[in-house]
Amino acid sequence: MPLSIDRTLLFVVSSLLALGLVMVGSASISTAASQLDQPFYYFNRQVIFAVIGLGLAWAVATVQLSFWQKNAPYLLMIGIALLVLVLTPVGREVNGSKRWLPLGPINMQVAELIKLFSIIYIADYLQRHHQQLRGSFFKVMGPLFLLGIAAILLLLQPDLGSVVVILSVVIAMMFLGGARLDVFVALLAILAGLFSLMIWLVPWRLERLKIFMDPWADPFGSGFQLTQALIAFGRGDWLGVGLGSSMQKLFYLPEAHTDFLYAILAEELGLIGALSVLTLFAVLIWRAFAIGRAAELAGQVFASQIAYGIGLWIGLQACVNMGVNMGALPTKGLTLPFMSYGGSSLVIVCIAIALLFRVDIETRYPEKSAVRVK
Length: 374
Prior knowledge:
Blueprint: H1 7-36, H2 41-61, H3 65-70, H4 72-86, E1 92-94, E2 97-103, E3 106-109, H5 110-128, H6 137-141, H7 144-155, H8 160-176, H9 181-201, H10 203-213, H11 224-236, H12 261-297, H13 301-325, H14 343-364
Antiparallel strand pairs: 1-2, 2-3
């Protein structure tokens, strides 16, 4: 007998994925035609990545959560080993950042893999030490050692954005898992202090912060990308200029199909389209937390923390990306989940959603947790 799945979550994910494919095609067509003489180059690749992601997601959805829990520490160590490999001559450098491992015709961004492995690792840790978290400071700090190594390796790429997302999600998961409030506040303060220090000690990061504060001070230089994104939002008005009719994607807004896809979407589909995407992400986060809460009430700590972690990760990364596009946050190279061009991000987030579906299935059908999805 087939197992039913969360239809609301399926609708939201399908909508974001379909809209993302359309917008990647629209935002990249001019760039691809000019640079590669193939107007649909990026669109075709994104479709291939989506097919791969959905195929892997289906396979992951058939695997019991106990498998991921059993192998959680090994997955994180594999991820750390890959981060080390990225920093060797094997890794590929793009735009001054060394973040990719070449795998034939594609490049794998290991940071995306680490985000998922970190969630699985912390969920397993919280399952094993759930009762001790409230009474021991060291039980809270224990799992941060391996994650600290991963964070240092990410900073060497450099990739501060991924470090912010990973550590923020991990600390929030530990709070939801029962860590004391005073320890939670202390960790937040330490994290905020470290991030502030990393910004002040690195000149180009400080310059990026200054640009964020006043991009119009140098609209044709350092503030060009952000000012062009704001122009895209302004042109979009209520209903947008029409799908495919963006002016900003015509070599005005750099990285229009990747980090700044949301700005092009706002220009072409207007405020209504931008708010629709925001609503879809809000519903996705709600369903993730609802699934996590149901698993928690059923006594499944690992499953609940997986759901909470995935909801926090996707929600935080989406908020950061959209905030950057709107000029509400300093520029960071974080993709918009399901929508921005990028194979690693799309494939990994599809796998994450498959895990979320698996949590829902094993919570509602505990007697069938060993049954494969049909």
